[in-house]
Specification:
alpha+beta, Jelly Rolls, about 300 residues, about 25% strand, Arc Repressor Mutant, subunit A, seven-stranded antiparallel sheet, five-stranded mixed sheet
Protein backbone atom coordinates (compact mmCIF):
# COMPACT_ATOMS: atom_id res chain seq x y z
CA UNK A 1 0.00 0.00 0.00
CA UNK A 2 1.37 3.40 -1.00
CA UNK A 3 2.43 5.95 1.62
CA UNK A 4 0.11 8.97 1.27
CA UNK A 5 1.24 12.61 1.29
CA UNK A 6 -0.92 15.73 0.98
CA UNK A 7 0.66 17.75 -1.81
CA UNK A 8 -0.43 21.03 -0.24
CA UNK A 9 1.54 20.14 2.91
CA UNK A 10 4.55 19.11 0.85
CA UNK A 11 4.82 22.51 -0.84
CA UNK A 12 3.31 24.78 1.85
CA UNK A 13 6.57 25.65 3.67
CA UNK A 14 8.32 26.39 0.41
CA UNK A 15 5.56 28.76 -0.75
CA UNK A 16 4.73 30.43 2.59
CA UNK A 17 8.37 30.89 3.70
CA UNK A 18 9.56 31.57 0.14
CA UNK A 19 12.23 28.85 0.33
CA UNK A 20 14.44 27.72 -2.55
CA UNK A 21 14.79 24.18 -1.17
CA UNK A 22 12.67 21.92 1.03
CA UNK A 23 12.94 18.24 2.01
CA UNK A 24 10.59 15.54 3.26
CA UNK A 25 11.81 12.36 4.93
CA UNK A 26 9.88 9.35 6.22
CA UNK A 27 11.35 5.91 6.87
CA UNK A 28 11.95 4.51 3.39
CA UNK A 29 11.61 7.67 1.37
CA UNK A 30 13.29 11.03 0.94
CA UNK A 31 12.07 13.86 -1.30
CA UNK A 32 14.03 17.05 -2.05
CA UNK A 33 12.45 19.93 -3.94
CA UNK A 34 14.46 22.81 -5.42
CA UNK A 35 12.76 25.92 -6.75
CA UNK A 36 14.15 28.70 -8.94
CA UNK A 37 12.08 31.80 -9.64
CA UNK A 38 13.30 32.88 -13.08
CA UNK A 39 10.89 35.81 -13.51
CA UNK A 40 7.49 36.95 -12.25
CA UNK A 41 5.94 34.61 -14.82
CA UNK A 42 8.17 31.52 -14.71
CA UNK A 43 9.33 29.15 -11.95
CA UNK A 44 11.45 26.01 -12.26
CA UNK A 45 11.18 22.96 -9.96
CA UNK A 46 13.65 20.08 -9.65
CA UNK A 47 12.27 17.21 -7.56
CA UNK A 48 14.59 14.33 -6.65
CA UNK A 49 13.57 11.43 -4.44
CA UNK A 50 14.75 8.05 -3.24
CA UNK A 51 11.81 5.69 -2.83
CA UNK A 52 11.88 2.28 -1.21
CA UNK A 53 8.08 2.20 -1.14
CA UNK A 54 5.28 3.55 -3.35
CA UNK A 55 4.25 7.15 -2.62
CA UNK A 56 0.88 8.72 -3.40
CA UNK A 57 0.66 12.54 -3.50
CA UNK A 58 -2.84 14.02 -3.44
CA UNK A 59 -3.58 17.60 -4.55
CA UNK A 60 -6.98 19.29 -4.21
CA UNK A 61 -5.72 22.82 -4.81
CA UNK A 62 -2.62 24.67 -5.90
CA UNK A 63 -0.91 27.69 -4.38
CA UNK A 64 0.27 28.54 -7.91
CA UNK A 65 -1.98 29.25 -10.86
CA UNK A 66 -1.31 28.82 -14.52
CA UNK A 67 0.23 25.89 -16.31
CA UNK A 68 2.91 23.32 -15.52
CA UNK A 69 5.14 21.47 -17.96
CA UNK A 70 6.43 18.34 -16.23
CA UNK A 71 9.30 16.14 -17.39
CA UNK A 72 9.80 12.61 -16.06
CA UNK A 73 13.57 12.10 -15.96
CA UNK A 74 13.86 8.88 -13.90
CA UNK A 75 11.38 6.52 -12.27
CA UNK A 76 7.82 5.40 -12.91
CA UNK A 77 4.59 7.08 -11.86
CA UNK A 78 0.91 7.37 -12.66
CA UNK A 79 -1.40 10.38 -12.75
CA UNK A 80 -5.14 10.28 -12.05
CA UNK A 81 -7.55 13.20 -12.24
CA UNK A 82 -11.32 12.88 -12.60
CA UNK A 83 -11.73 10.43 -15.51
CA UNK A 84 -8.13 10.86 -16.73
CA UNK A 85 -5.46 8.25 -16.04
CA UNK A 86 -1.92 8.41 -17.39
CA UNK A 87 1.21 6.30 -16.93
CA UNK A 88 4.43 8.31 -16.81
CA UNK A 89 7.82 6.80 -17.64
CA UNK A 90 11.27 8.26 -18.31
CA UNK A 91 11.25 10.73 -21.23
CA UNK A 92 7.58 11.58 -20.70
CA UNK A 93 6.37 15.19 -20.92
CA UNK A 94 3.02 16.22 -19.44
CA UNK A 95 1.31 19.60 -19.48
CA UNK A 96 -1.23 20.31 -16.75
CA UNK A 97 -3.37 23.32 -15.87
CA UNK A 98 -2.97 23.99 -12.14
CA UNK A 99 -6.41 25.45 -11.45
CA UNK A 100 -8.69 22.77 -12.83
CA UNK A 101 -7.80 19.29 -11.65
CA UNK A 102 -7.97 17.52 -8.33
CA UNK A 103 -5.34 14.85 -8.89
CA UNK A 104 -3.32 12.03 -7.43
CA UNK A 105 0.23 11.22 -8.52
CA UNK A 106 1.64 7.83 -7.53
CA UNK A 107 5.41 7.37 -7.67
CA UNK A 108 6.40 3.73 -7.68
CA UNK A 109 9.19 2.06 -5.71
CA UNK A 110 12.05 2.38 -8.21
CA UNK A 111 14.90 3.74 -6.11
CA UNK A 112 15.85 7.11 -7.56
CA UNK A 113 13.10 9.24 -9.11
CA UNK A 114 13.57 12.68 -10.66
CA UNK A 115 10.99 15.05 -12.11
CA UNK A 116 11.53 18.57 -13.43
CA UNK A 117 8.74 21.08 -13.82
CA UNK A 118 8.24 24.56 -15.26
CA UNK A 119 5.31 26.61 -13.93
CA UNK A 120 4.19 29.59 -15.99
CA UNK A 121 1.66 32.30 -15.14
CA UNK A 122 -1.93 32.21 -16.50
CA UNK A 123 -1.43 35.19 -18.84
CA UNK A 124 1.69 33.64 -20.35
CA UNK A 125 -0.10 30.29 -20.74
CA UNK A 126 -3.06 31.95 -22.45
CA UNK A 127 -0.76 33.83 -24.80
CA UNK A 128 0.81 30.67 -26.18
CA UNK A 129 -1.87 28.02 -25.63
CA UNK A 130 -5.07 29.92 -26.41
CA UNK A 131 -6.35 27.28 -28.81
CA UNK A 132 -4.76 24.11 -27.48
CA UNK A 133 -7.88 23.05 -25.62
CA UNK A 134 -6.97 20.36 -23.07
CA UNK A 135 -6.43 20.37 -19.30
CA UNK A 136 -3.80 17.65 -19.54
CA UNK A 137 -1.52 16.45 -22.30
CA UNK A 138 1.04 13.62 -22.38
CA UNK A 139 3.76 13.17 -25.00
CA UNK A 140 7.17 11.64 -25.37
CA UNK A 141 9.82 14.25 -24.57
CA UNK A 142 11.05 15.52 -27.95
CA UNK A 143 14.74 15.46 -28.85
CA UNK A 144 15.48 19.19 -28.48
CA UNK A 145 13.83 19.40 -25.06
CA UNK A 146 15.68 16.26 -23.92
CA UNK A 147 19.01 17.85 -24.92
CA UNK A 148 18.18 20.99 -22.89
CA UNK A 149 17.15 18.87 -19.87
CA UNK A 150 20.34 16.81 -20.06
CA UNK A 151 22.38 20.05 -20.06
CA UNK A 152 20.52 21.23 -16.93
CA UNK A 153 21.07 17.88 -15.20
CA UNK A 154 24.80 17.96 -15.90
CA UNK A 155 25.36 21.58 -14.80
CA UNK A 156 25.55 23.14 -11.34
CA UNK A 157 23.02 25.96 -11.53
CA UNK A 158 23.16 27.04 -7.86
CA UNK A 159 25.38 30.10 -8.35
CA UNK A 160 24.84 33.41 -10.19
CA UNK A 161 26.20 32.14 -13.49
CA UNK A 162 24.06 29.04 -13.03
CA UNK A 163 20.96 31.23 -12.78
CA UNK A 164 21.77 32.82 -16.15
CA UNK A 165 22.44 29.41 -17.69
CA UNK A 166 19.24 27.92 -16.25
CA UNK A 167 17.08 30.82 -17.38
CA UNK A 168 18.36 30.46 -20.95
CA UNK A 169 17.71 26.71 -21.04
CA UNK A 170 14.22 27.01 -19.53
CA UNK A 171 13.17 29.60 -22.09
CA UNK A 172 14.64 27.39 -24.84
CA UNK A 173 12.42 24.56 -23.55
CA UNK A 174 9.34 26.79 -23.40
CA UNK A 175 9.91 28.02 -26.95
CA UNK A 176 10.43 24.48 -28.18
CA UNK A 177 7.34 23.05 -26.42
CA UNK A 178 5.00 25.92 -27.34
CA UNK A 179 6.13 25.87 -30.97
CA UNK A 180 5.39 22.16 -31.14
CA UNK A 181 1.94 22.61 -29.57
CA UNK A 182 1.01 25.49 -31.88
CA UNK A 183 2.02 23.49 -34.95
CA UNK A 184 -0.08 20.56 -33.74
CA UNK A 185 -3.03 22.87 -32.97
CA UNK A 186 -2.96 24.38 -36.45
CA UNK A 187 -2.82 20.89 -37.95
CA UNK A 188 -5.82 19.81 -35.85
CA UNK A 189 -8.22 22.41 -37.32
CA UNK A 190 -11.00 20.63 -39.17
CA UNK A 191 -13.79 21.47 -41.59
CA UNK A 192 -17.16 21.90 -39.86
CA UNK A 193 -20.28 21.41 -41.98
CA UNK A 194 -23.62 23.05 -41.20
CA UNK A 195 -24.70 19.76 -39.62
CA UNK A 196 -21.55 19.71 -37.45
CA UNK A 197 -22.11 23.29 -36.29
CA UNK A 198 -25.74 22.59 -35.43
CA UNK A 199 -24.71 19.43 -33.55
CA UNK A 200 -22.03 21.30 -31.60
CA UNK A 201 -24.51 24.00 -30.60
CA UNK A 202 -26.93 21.29 -29.49
CA UNK A 203 -24.14 19.66 -27.46
CA UNK A 204 -23.36 23.00 -25.82
CA UNK A 205 -27.05 23.45 -24.93
CA UNK A 206 -27.10 19.96 -23.40
CA UNK A 207 -24.07 20.76 -21.23
CA UNK A 208 -25.57 24.07 -20.10
CA UNK A 209 -28.90 22.47 -19.17
CA UNK A 210 -27.30 19.50 -17.38
CA UNK A 211 -24.22 21.17 -15.90
CA UNK A 212 -24.81 19.63 -12.44
CA UNK A 213 -24.55 16.12 -13.89
CA UNK A 214 -23.26 16.42 -17.47
CA UNK A 215 -22.93 13.43 -19.78
CA UNK A 216 -19.44 12.12 -20.48
CA UNK A 217 -17.84 12.97 -23.83
CA UNK A 218 -18.63 9.59 -25.39
CA UNK A 219 -22.31 9.79 -24.41
CA UNK A 220 -22.58 13.43 -25.51
CA UNK A 221 -21.09 12.56 -28.90
CA UNK A 222 -23.73 9.86 -29.40
CA UNK A 223 -26.52 12.24 -28.35
CA UNK A 224 -25.63 14.71 -31.12
CA UNK A 225 -24.45 12.12 -33.69
CA UNK A 226 -20.78 13.21 -33.85
CA UNK A 227 -17.63 11.23 -33.24
CA UNK A 228 -15.62 12.11 -30.13
CA UNK A 229 -12.73 13.65 -32.05
CA UNK A 230 -14.96 16.06 -33.95
CA UNK A 231 -16.82 16.91 -30.75
CA UNK A 232 -13.62 17.77 -28.84
CA UNK A 233 -11.86 19.64 -31.62
CA UNK A 234 -15.08 21.25 -32.83
CA UNK A 235 -15.89 22.62 -29.36
CA UNK A 236 -12.56 24.39 -29.12
CA UNK A 237 -12.67 25.57 -32.72
CA UNK A 238 -16.25 26.89 -32.59
CA UNK A 239 -16.57 28.14 -28.98
CA UNK A 240 -12.89 28.58 -28.00
CA UNK A 241 -13.70 26.45 -24.93
CA UNK A 242 -13.59 22.78 -24.06
CA UNK A 243 -16.69 20.93 -22.86
CA UNK A 244 -15.15 20.88 -19.37
CA UNK A 245 -14.69 24.67 -19.43
CA UNK A 246 -18.31 25.23 -20.45
CA UNK A 247 -19.57 23.04 -17.59
CA UNK A 248 -17.23 24.76 -15.13
CA UNK A 249 -18.39 28.20 -16.26
CA UNK A 250 -22.06 27.26 -15.84
CA UNK A 251 -21.42 25.82 -12.38
CA UNK A 252 -19.69 29.00 -11.27
CA UNK A 253 -22.41 31.26 -12.70
CA UNK A 254 -25.04 29.22 -10.87
CA UNK A 255 -22.95 29.28 -7.69
CA UNK A 256 -22.70 33.07 -7.96
CA UNK A 257 -26.48 33.32 -8.36
CA UNK A 258 -27.09 31.07 -5.32
CA UNK A 259 -24.62 33.01 -3.17
CA UNK A 260 -26.27 36.24 -4.20
CA UNK A 261 -29.95 35.31 -4.11
CA UNK A 262 -30.45 32.31 -1.81
CA UNK A 263 -30.09 31.49 1.88
CA UNK A 264 -27.82 28.52 1.19
CA UNK A 265 -24.37 28.56 2.80
CA UNK A 266 -21.12 27.80 0.98
CA UNK A 267 -21.02 24.16 2.09
CA UNK A 268 -24.59 23.57 0.90
CA UNK A 269 -23.92 25.20 -2.47
CA UNK A 270 -20.73 23.21 -2.92
CA UNK A 271 -22.62 19.94 -2.28
CA UNK A 272 -25.56 21.02 -4.43
CA UNK A 273 -23.24 21.60 -7.40
CA UNK A 274 -21.60 18.20 -6.99
CA UNK A 275 -18.25 19.10 -5.44
CA UNK A 276 -16.80 16.43 -3.16
CA UNK A 277 -14.52 18.96 -1.46
CA UNK A 278 -15.52 22.50 -0.51
CA UNK A 279 -11.89 23.59 -0.99
CA UNK A 280 -12.11 22.65 -4.68
CA UNK A 281 -15.30 24.68 -5.07
CA UNK A 282 -13.71 27.67 -3.31
CA UNK A 283 -10.62 27.47 -5.53
CA UNK A 284 -12.66 27.24 -8.73
CA UNK A 285 -14.95 30.13 -7.69
CA UNK A 286 -11.94 32.33 -6.92
CA UNK A 287 -10.31 31.50 -10.25
CA UNK A 288 -13.53 32.43 -12.10
CA UNK A 289 -14.41 35.67 -10.29
CA UNK A 290 -11.21 36.65 -8.43
CA UNK A 291 -13.05 36.71 -5.10
CA UNK A 292 -13.58 34.05 -2.43
CA UNK A 293 -17.17 32.83 -1.87
CA UNK A 294 -17.16 34.04 1.76
CA UNK A 295 -16.05 37.50 0.64
CA UNK A 296 -18.66 37.52 -2.11
CA UNK A 297 -21.40 36.84 0.46
CA UNK A 298 -20.16 39.72 2.62
CA UNK A 299 -20.11 42.12 -0.30
CA UNK A 300 -22.93 40.74 -2.42
CA UNK A 301 -24.97 43.91 -2.14
CA UNK A 302 -22.36 45.50 -4.40
CA UNK A 303 -22.90 42.86 -7.10
CA UNK A 304 -26.67 43.07 -7.39
Amino acid sequence: MAYKINGNDLYSDMIVKDLDTTSFCHKNLQITIKRKRLSDKVEFYDIASHLDEDVEIYNDSYSSKGLMLGFMINGQSSFKAQNISLDLSPNSTYIQTLDSLINTKTFYKTGTTRVMGIVISPDMANLFLKNSGENLKLNRTNLNTKIYLDEIINTNYDDCLGDIFLQGKIFDILYNEFSSIQKQTNTNKIFLSNFDIAALNKAKDILISSFKNPPCISKLAKMVHLNEFKLKVGFKQLFDKTAFEIVREQKMLHAKDLLQNSDMNIFEISNFLGFKHQSHFTKMFYNEFNILPKEFIKNRKFYI
